[in-house]
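Project outcomes to date are best conveyed with an example. Our students and postdoctoral researchers have been running inverse folding experiments weekly, and each run begins with a structure described purely in tokens. The record below, which covers 363 residues, was selected by the lab manager from last quarter's runs and is presented without edits.
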């Protein structure tokens, strides 16, 4: 299925102000295709703050659009926190209906700028260690609400002559539980007439929805897939991730194998290190056996403890010992760097999903 970014964008923007879709919107303001392109480009590529800034549009049109509530952005920052080292900026954004989502910008000493974005307000999957999961599900975001989190940071970066290089869907929500909007959001992020992010620079992280992994394999996109595994067995996974009751590890790993077979793309496995839960040597050996000899990469994530949660993060030395077991088995493994620790207290979810700085492997 082809996804037309311009239509996706106008459909959402039009709906926000009470039109059925982009066609009805275009008719109401008598906008010809070239005008639609001009407006879309101003928002998505030129990153104008709002339509009032687009001086190539007739003044009356700008005024008319504004008087109807037309706006380039669906998200408004309510809190922005920067870490002491200046590398991580966390944003809390208000949506038009008052719901709030978080997104995080991570700058890695200039070599990469990754934005971690949310796909839902809340989350329905209730992973025991995740504060978003514990808070429950509110609603899906639409494609532009997803895109606008990136647009916000792209605008901020542009003032410093920088740009986004990577996007990860590792904020609030389960991307595959909001499949269509996320794929449409990817189309917006990718559009060369907009931010122009390469598919290989976009990563979707899932709790492990088997039917959607199959569907994603059929999209034929080069977008990266990450699986939140967090355990090497049904026993351990079942205790911390309720989704495991719906899709057990056998089903999950079979779906991942089908994906690899179809796409020949490497799959990333996220494994958050929880003290006394999933971090002993038995777990490491079981995980190594599961991962060995396949097109898989394991990311070990230091846990960001949440204020009222019962979980503690595994100590660094134990994380490295765990990594060494995987490494010895020849499993490509990265220990994630924990960024913005000083500002992450308020947020159990949006955090160190970032670049492989510290390689466990000695290769
Ligand atoms: N629902 C998707 C994406 C959102 S969570 C998923 O499950 O993959 C992104 C990643 O952050 C997941 O691997 C999640 O398990 C992890 N995570 C959640 N809370 C965390 C915390 N407090 N510390 C470290 N990682 C966490």
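After processing, the design step wrote out the following sequence:
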């Amino acid at each position: 299925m082809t996804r037309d970014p311009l239509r996706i964008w106008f459909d959402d923007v039009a709906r926000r102000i009470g039109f059925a879709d982009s066609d009805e919107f275009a008719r109401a303001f008598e906008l010809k295709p070239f005008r639609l392109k001009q407006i879309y480009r101003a928002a998505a590529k030129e990153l104008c703050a709002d339509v009032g800034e687009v001086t190539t549009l007739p003044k009356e049109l700008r005024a008319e659009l504004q008087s109807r509530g037309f706006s380039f952005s669906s998200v408004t920052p309510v809190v922005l926190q920067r870490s002491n080292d200046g590398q991580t900026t966390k944003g809390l954004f208000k949506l038009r209906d008052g719901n709030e989502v978080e997104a995080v910008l991570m700058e890695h000493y200039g070599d990469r700028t990754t934005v971690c974005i949310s796909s839902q307000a809340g989350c329905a999957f209730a992973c025991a260690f995740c504060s978003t999961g514990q808070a429950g599900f509110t609603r899906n975001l639409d494609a532009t609400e997803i895109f606008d989190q990136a647009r916000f940071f792209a605008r901020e970066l542009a003032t410093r002559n920088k740009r986004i290089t990577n996007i990860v869907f590792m904020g609030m929500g389960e991307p595959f539980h909001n499949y269509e909007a996320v794929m449409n959001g990817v189309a917006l992020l990718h559009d060369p007439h907009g931010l122009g992010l390469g598919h290989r620079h976009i990563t979707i992280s899932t709790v492990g929805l088997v039917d959607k992994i199959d569907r994603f394999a059929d999209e034929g996109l080069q977008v990266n897939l990450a699986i939140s595994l967090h355990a090497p067995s049904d026993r351990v996974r079942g205790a911390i991730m309720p989704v495991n009751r719906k899709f057990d590890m056998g089903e999950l790993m079979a779906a991942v194998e089908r994906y690899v077979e179809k796409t020949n793309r490497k799959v990333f496995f996220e494994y958050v290190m929880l003290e006394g839960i999933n971090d002993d040597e038995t777990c490491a050996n079981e995980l190594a056996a599961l991962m060995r000899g396949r097109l898989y990469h394991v990311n070990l994530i230091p846990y960001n403890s949440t204020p009222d949660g019962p979980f503690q993060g595994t100590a660094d030395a134990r994380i490295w010992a765990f990594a060494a077991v995987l490494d010895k088995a020849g499993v490509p493994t990265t220990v994630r760097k924990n960024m913005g620790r000083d500002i992450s207290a308020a947020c159990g979810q949006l955090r160190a999903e970032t670049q492989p700085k510290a390689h466990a492997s000695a290769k």
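The chain has 13 helices and 13 strands. The pocket of S-adenosyl-L-homocysteine is lined by residues 127, 129-130, 170, 174, 205-207, 228, 270, 272, 301, 303-304, 306, 348-349, 351, 353 (CB under 6 Å). The training component of this project remains on track.
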